[in-house]
Amino acid sequence: LGLLGPATSVAAMSPMDGSPKKRLTRKERAEMKRQEAERYAELRRQGQDEVGHTAEAAAMRKYQLRKKMRKGILRKRESDLASVLFPGVSPEVYYPDEEVLMYTDLVN
Question: If you average pLDDT over residues 29-42, what whole number do you get?
């Protein structure tokens, strides 16, 4: 879900016949970027913050991180947020009902 909502770009729409998705042209990408920037500015004017748990807040965070989430030299692909915030770190897997040892200190 982006700033423009689900399935707003040509690439995001899946044709009914099951053919592969069409890549956006330079003009379409520029138009999409302009629309996202306008939508972001409109949400900011409305007083929407980026730290909430709403879909709009998540979309605004994603908009702010759009340049940081690009990877690659020839073919730029988006990576997940965890790899942007913690590069080179593999995630820990915790299973349900597994005991996790923690050390805590009391702070006054």
Answer: 90
